[in-house]
Specification:
Elements: E1 9-18, E2 21-31, E3 36-41, H1 47-54, E4 62-67, E5 70-71, E6 79-82, H2 94-104, H3 113-120, H4 136-149, E7 154-158, H5 166-182, E8 187-191, H6 195-201, E9 204-209, E10 214-220, H7 229-233, H8 238-259
Parallel strand pairs: 3-8, 3-9, 6-7, 7-8
Antiparallel strand pairs: 1-2, 1-4, 4-5, 9-10
Helix pairs in contact: 2-4, 3-4, 4-5
Length: 260
C-alpha cells in the first residue's frame, strides 16, 4: 500500500523534447491530494505539453511524473483530461460520448452517475443529440461530463473555457469547482491564459516560462472558498497578487520580444 504522505502528483526534473525541439526543461513541482492548481504562462511556453506529460500522453526525455509515488508511463484510468477543442466523437450522441470512458474501462454505471452528470451539466434534454447539433458551451459541458464520468483521481483541464462566451465560461467554471469541491478524492490541474480565472479557481498558481518551459513562480491563493468573482476582486490581497502574476507574465513576454 502506498504511503499516504506522497503528493498526489510529483513532477520530478521533467524535460520533454518533440521533433528535436526542447519543449520543457527540468520542471519540478508537486500537487497535493484534492489541491486545485492552475498553470499560467505565455503562448508557446509548454503548458499543454506539461499537462499531456502528466496524463501519460507524452514521454519524458528525462525526469518523470508520478501519481501517488508511482511513475506514469502511459495513460491510466485514474486520470482524465478535458481538451480545449472538445474532442468529442461526432458519430456518438451526447449520452454515448459521456459514457465512453466507462465503456472503455468496461465499467457499468450502476449508480446512475451518467444521468446525474447530464442533469448537473444541463445536458439531459439534449442527451440524444449529436455534437454538430450543439453549441460550443454544450460541447464543452459534454467533454467535462465525459471526464468526470470515470470518477478520476486527477482531473486535467487544458483551457476548457477559452472557446465559449463570457457567460458560459463563468457558468462552466462554477460547475467544475462545485463538482471538485464535492469530490474530496479528486485533484485538479487547469491551464489558463486568464489571470483572474486562475485566481478564482486555484489553491496555488504555477507560472511556466519558456520556451523551453520552466517553473518561473509558484504562488498560493489566500482567498477562502467558496469564492465568487466579486469576492475575489474586492479582497484586500487581490491587487497585489494579480500584479505579481501580471508582472511575471509581462516580463517574460518582453524578454521574448527582445530576443526576436
Amino acid at each position: 500500500m502506498l504511503d499516504a504522505t506522497f503528493p498526489k502528483v510529483t513532477v520530478d526534473g521533467l524535460s520533454v523534447r518533440l521533433t528535436g525541439n526542447q519543449i520543457l526543461k527540468d520542471i519540478s513541482l508537486t500537487v497535493d491530494p484534492h489541491e486545485f492548481v492552475c498553470i499560467i504562462g505565455t503562448s508557446g511556453g509548454g503548458k499543454t505539453t506539461l499537462l499531456r506529460a502528466v496524463a501519460g500522453l507524452l514521454p519524458a526525455s528525462s525526469g518523470c511524473v508520478r501519481l501517488d509515488g508511482e511513475e506514469i508511463v502511459a495513460p491510466t484510468p485514474r486520470i482524465a483530461m478535458v481538451f480545449q477543442q472538445f474532442g468529442l466523437f461526432p458519430w456518438k450522441t451526447v449520452r454515448a460520448n459521456v459514457e465512453y470512458g466507462l465503456r472503455v474501462q468496461r465499467r457499468t454505471d450502476e449508480s446512475g452517475r451518467v444521468d446525474r452528470l447530464l442533469e448537473i451539466m444541463n445536458l439531459a434534454q439534449v442527451a440524444g443529440r449529436y455534437p454538430h447539433q450543439l453549441s460550443g458551451g454544450m460541447k464543452q459541458r459534454v467533454g467535462i461530463a465525459r471526464a468526470l464520468s470515470v470518477e478520476p483521481e486527477l482531473l486535467l483541464l487544458d483551457e476548457p473555457f477559452s472557446a465559449v462566451d463570457a457567460i458560459t465560461r463563468e457558468l462552466l467554471r462554477n460547475e467544475v469547482l462545485q463538482l471538485w469541491e464535492r469530490n474530496t478524492e479528486m485533484t485538479g490541474m487547469l491551464i489558463t491564459h486568464d489571470i483572474d480565472e486562475a485566481i478564482l479557481m486555484a489553491d496555488r498558481i504555477v507560472v511556466i516560462a519558456g520556451p523551453p518551459g520552466q517553473v518561473a513562480m509558484q504562488v498560493p491563493v489566500p482567498f477562502p472558498r467558496p469564492r465568487t468573482p466579486r469576492e475575489v476582486r474586492t479582497h484586500e490581497s487581490y491587487p497585489e497578487l494579480r500584479d505579481q502574476l501580471w508582472t511575471a507574465l509581462r516580463d517574460k513576454a518582453t524578454h521574448d520580444l527582445e530576443r526576436t
